[in-house]
Amino acid sequence: MEKGTVMKSYASGEELIAEIRKRAELFVAEFDDVPASGLHTLKDGADRTPAQMLAYQLGWMDLLLGWERDERAGREVVTPAPGYRWNQLGALCGTFYEQWRDASISQLQEACRQRVDDVVALVASLSREELFTSGQRAWASSTPSAWPVAKWV
Fold first, then answer.
1. Above pLDDT 90, what percent of the chain?
2. How many Å separate Cα 102 from the centre of its chain?
3. Prediction pTM value
4. How far, in Å, CA of 147 to CA of 64, rounded?
5. In which element (H, E) is residue 131 found?
């Protein structure tokens, strides 16, 4: 998020879910016309290839879902990921790209849609307080900003 940008607040979990679905479908649809030959090609003005853009989103959704799954199971949650610190996100993102390196555009898009469904299910399972109040999840409070869960999704 750019400096000075205010993050939108949502009146309810349903409003947040509608926004997640809308933005996710717009994002995934951006890759509908990417040919297989362009999947790993960097376009002018972009800092990631189409495959990397999709893998990046998949990686972060997987982490978020894993944090919540682990916390619910009573396991220790390591953020951002075991072996990585918040100042090592470039290396962490490299693991996302490697994980999805051999996937086709349609596989990446379908995986994104499935993860979005999983994130939506997570949001739907949380109370208003759990979503919008800081301190409701240890993983969401693992940075100095201590954002509520809604800001993470």
1. 86
2. 20
3. 0.91
4. 13
5. helix 128-132
